[in-house]
Amino acid sequence: MSRLAPARHLLNWRSLHWKIAALTAAAACAVTAVVGVLVHRATYDWSLTIGQQKAYRALEDATVAYARTGSRGEALADPDEIPAPMLGSLRRGVTLTWYDDRKPDQPWMWAARVVDGEPLAVRMEMGPERRSLQALDRHIVMAALAALAVVVPLAALAASLPTRRLRRVAQTARRISEGELDARIGMDGRRGDEIAEISAAVDSMAGSLQRWLLNEQRFTADVAHELRTPVMGLMTSAELLPDGEVTDLVRDRVRVLRTLVECLLEISRLDAGAERADRVPVPLGEVVEESVRRTGLQAAVTVTGAPVVETDPRRLDRIIANLVINAHRHGRSPVEVAVDGTTVVVRDHGPGFPDELLAHGPQRFRTGAAERGRGYGLGLAIALGQAGVIGADLTLANAPGGGAAAVVCLPERAQRG
């Protein structure tokens, strides 16, 4: 999968890699176009200047010959052939030049003056200069294409270096968001560029987040461990009290307190990553039915087929029991449990999960909306943590017909039978 990642990024036309290459190519095209226009214009002006000089010298020679022989000869053009715009601008003592490109394939450079009241004009063919200019334009285009053929791959190669570093930053950030708090980019900060600054900031943020979470986990574990002994003492003392209504109330509250302490200990172990799954092949339908029965709560269990999966039955029992208890505590009857293949769906018909819970996931000691009932908000958090231990996917959603639906998908690779 990792070998396909670079190819996937290369095929993504919206990637920063191709945007940098396209920007470089556009800049190269713009520079080439500007230089080409300047060269074309300079060469065009230069050819006109050379043509004007040749026409002027030819007119001088023809004028001298005309003054000596009185004949126009072959050098001088017939007055009827002189272009009208030029003929109308002739003045005594003024020599005019005019570029005649009315026929693009046969341009001429004219030079004319008035001698003894007669208009004298010569014309020089500019076809070779025009063809030379066209050849120059073709060579400029070919040189530009050749330059792009070299510049674009080099730009793409150069762009791959910063984009590869950015992908490394993104991958590390995703690993941190998935719970791998010790992941670090570790990029050399001596480069001094913006990517190195981002990398250093992400590493610093990850370190601070890791310290903060470890302190929270340590505090939760310490509190749970410290409370365990006095709670056991309270339970022992409550059992010694004489039977009565007050004693039953005290025993019930002590049991609730003991359950809370056990949940805190379980949360601390899950946070510390100390839990390991003991996978064995189990009949999924029977395990789910037994888990529901052990809760002592009413729930309709439907099993399709006879699925057998390889998982940790104790942790799966914990997940199903917490979801069923959560459905009764925060939803409304009937509660339905459906087993289909490696998927288990626990659904109630209450108000559904709050939007905040669906957006951010279960939060400890928060039960969401008040209408979802009372509790400590640890059931779903424990179910989510235990699902991660056995490699299952726990998804929380609201059913289309109303009510909350928790979907547990066990990994297919663990399926047997």
From TrEMBL:
<keyword id="KW-1133">Transmembrane helix</keyword>
<keyword id="KW-0902">Two-component regulatory system</keyword>
<keyword id="KW-0812">Transmembrane</keyword>
<keyword id="KW-0418">Kinase</keyword>
<feature type="transmembrane region" description="Helical">
    <location>
        <begin position="20"/>
        <end position="39"/>
    </location>
</feature>
<dbReference type="Pfam" id="PF00672">
    <property type="entry name" value="HAMP"/>
</dbReference>
<dbReference type="InterPro" id="IPR003661">
    <property type="entry name" value="HisK_dim/P_dom"/>
</dbReference>
<protein>
    <recommendedName>
        <fullName>histidine kinase</fullName>
        <ecNumber>2.7.13.3</ecNumber>
    </recommendedName>
</protein>
<keyword id="KW-0472">Membrane</keyword>
<keyword id="KW-0808">Transferase</keyword>
<dbReference type="GO" id="GO:0000155">
    <property type="term" value="F:phosphorelay sensor kinase activity"/>
</dbReference>
<dbReference type="InterPro" id="IPR036890">
    <property type="entry name" value="HATPase_C_sf"/>
</dbReference>
<keyword id="KW-0597">Phosphoprotein</keyword>
<feature type="domain" description="HAMP">
    <location>
        <begin position="163"/>
        <end position="214"/>
    </location>
</feature>
<keyword id="KW-0547">Nucleotide-binding</keyword>
<dbReference type="Pfam" id="PF02518">
    <property type="entry name" value="HATPase_c"/>
</dbReference>
<feature type="domain" description="Histidine kinase">
    <location>
        <begin position="222"/>
        <end position="414"/>
    </location>
</feature>
<keyword id="KW-0067">ATP-binding</keyword>
<dbReference type="GO" id="GO:0005886">
    <property type="term" value="C:plasma membrane"/>
</dbReference>
<dbReference type="InterPro" id="IPR050980">
    <property type="entry name" value="2C_sensor_his_kinase"/>
</dbReference>
<dbReference type="GO" id="GO:0005524">
    <property type="term" value="F:ATP binding"/>
</dbReference>
<dbReference type="InterPro" id="IPR003594">
    <property type="entry name" value="HATPase_dom"/>
</dbReference>
<dbReference type="InterPro" id="IPR036097">
    <property type="entry name" value="HisK_dim/P_sf"/>
</dbReference>
<dbReference type="Pfam" id="PF00512">
    <property type="entry name" value="HisKA"/>
</dbReference>
<keyword id="KW-1003">Cell membrane</keyword>
<dbReference type="InterPro" id="IPR003660">
    <property type="entry name" value="HAMP_dom"/>
</dbReference>
<feature type="transmembrane region" description="Helical">
    <location>
        <begin position="140"/>
        <end position="161"/>
    </location>
</feature>
<dbReference type="InterPro" id="IPR005467">
    <property type="entry name" value="His_kinase_dom"/>
</dbReference>
